[in-house]
Amino acid sequence: MVPVQYYLLLSAAVFCIGVFGILTRRNALLFLMSVELLLNAANINLVAFSNFHGNLTGQTFSLFTLALAAAEVAVGIGIILVLYRNFKDVDVNEATTMRW
Fold first, then answer.
1. Is residue 81 included in any domain, yes or no?
2. Which of 29, 24, 22, 36 is nearest to 66 (CA)?
3. Beta bridge partner(s), residue 91
4. Which of 13, 15, 89, 95 has the most beta carbons within 10 angstroms of its beta carbon?
């Protein structure tokens, strides 16, 4: 059996990659992919601790998190399409010009 520490190390690495992607990228698609990495890191933790404690609660929360991620992608793609239609680019810095 694989120790829980390996799962936590994997989750921390995926989370750090996601945070790095959010802080350094200006492309809206890469920004959404980085948010997905953050959610998947949380899912790894939930499933690992659920397996460690021998119950299914963490796996159930993980399924809810996947549903939340799917809804987030649907809304995010809609925003990206509007951003591309208005500015012909998906740079998130251009979205500040959409204010009043």
1. yes
2. 36
3. 27
4. 15
The answer, yes or no, to whether residue 79 has pLDDT greater than 70, is: yes
Which residues, including other chains, have CB under 8 Å from residue 72's CB and lie 6 or more apart?
A: 32, 35, 39
Residues sharing a CB contact under 8 Å with residue 11, sequence separation 6 or more, in sequence order: 41, 42, 44, 45, 48
With tokens 């120790």, the residue in question is 3
Rg for the chain (alpha carbons), in Å? 17
- pTM, whole model, 2 decimals? 0.83
Whether 100 is in a domain gets the answer no
Query: Looking at this protein, which amino acid is placed at residue 44?
Result: I
Report the CATH number that the domain containing residue 83 is assigned in CATH: 1.10.287.3510
Residues 28-50: tens digit of each pLDDT: 888 889 999 999 999 999 999 99
